[in-house]
Specification:
Blueprint: E1 11-14, E2 18-21, E3 29-33, E4 38-41, E5 55-59, E6 65-68, E7 76-78, H1 90-109, E8 119-120, E9 123-124, H2 126-136, H3 145-151, E10 153-155, E11 172-176, E12 181-189, E13 192-197, E14 205-210, H4 217-224, E15 226-231
Antiparallel strand pairs: 1-4, 1-7, 2-3, 4-5, 5-6, 8-9, 10-15, 11-12, 11-15, 12-13, 13-14
Helix pairs in contact: 1-2
């Protein structure tokens, strides 16, 4: 167990999977930090927003900010090796795509349900599954669907003619509104993609669906909201502190 208070000049490592939240009250899950992920305390934590003892942190691998329960400090340890962002070429990433696809298929075969904020097995949200799959291969991408869309290299396809031949297995498929991507899946080829979708309009977990005007309610729901696609050609690099 580390000594209190935490320092914003020290990098920490997670000794257990940790839930992180979107506000100082730690009521709504924002994301999760798997064992061995690195994080740092943000100076704003010292303000103790709303008199909360909880801690605002930033995950090192994707620069994602969220709140850690004060009681979870005991699951952190000071790292002896600060996080160093890996460098991946586009060719290296393409070579890792089979492993990335296999990760999602193993996750699908494991009993699961959709969990908003989920990035740790067995329960994921859509972008959490994508991030975890790439991270399993050592490649880091941003956390949320809209961030992943902005990070990926855009790929243009002919939606009207249902021509997706330009897409490669491992490309990301984005869905949402005109303004913003709100959902993401991993392209498998032959117009199929794997994704974790919610209970209301989706499968309540990880399933394979198809890009098509025909099919059940879930297939049609997401196809009508298809925004585009992108290819991961690099691993996320840290922003300046």
């Amino acid at each position: 167990m580390i000594a209190k208070p935490l320092s914003d000049t020290i990098e920490y490592c997670c000794r257990e999977n940790l839930d992180l939240y979107d506000g100082a009250d730690c009521q709504t899950l924002a994301t999760q930090a798997a064992v061995s992920r690195h994080l740092r305390l943000l100076p704003q934590s010292k303000n103790h927003t709303n008199n909360s003892p909880n801690i605002l942190v930033q995950l090192c691998e994707d620069n994602y900010t969220a709140w850690l329960l004060d009681s979870d400090q005991k699951h952190l340890e000071i790292t002896t090796q600060p996080y160093l962002a890996p460098i991946w070429s586009e060719a290296q990433i393409q070579a890792a795509i089979p492993q990335i696809i296999q990760f999602t298929q193993v996750a699908m075969a494991t009993p699961n349900y959709y969990l908003w904020g989920g990035t740790v097995s067995p329960n994921y949200d859509c972008s959490g599954l994508m991030q975890a799959a790439f991270a399993d291969a050592g490649i880091w991408i941003p956390r949320d669907a809209y961030q992943q869309e902005a990070f990926a290299k855009p790929i243009t396809f002919n939606r009207e003619q249902l021509d997706f031949s330009i897409l490669l297995p491992g490309d990301l498929i984005f869905f949402g509104t005109v303004e913003k991507a709100t959902h993401v899946g991993l392209y498998l080829g032959d117009k199929k993609y794997i994704h974790s979708s919610g209970n209301e309009q989706g499968r309540n977990g990880i399933k394979i669906d198809v890009l098509s005007l025909e099919g059940d309610t879930c297939i049609q729901y997401y196809f009508k909201r298809l925004r585009g696609a992108g290819r991961i050609i690099s691993s996320y690099q840290l922003l300046p502190k």
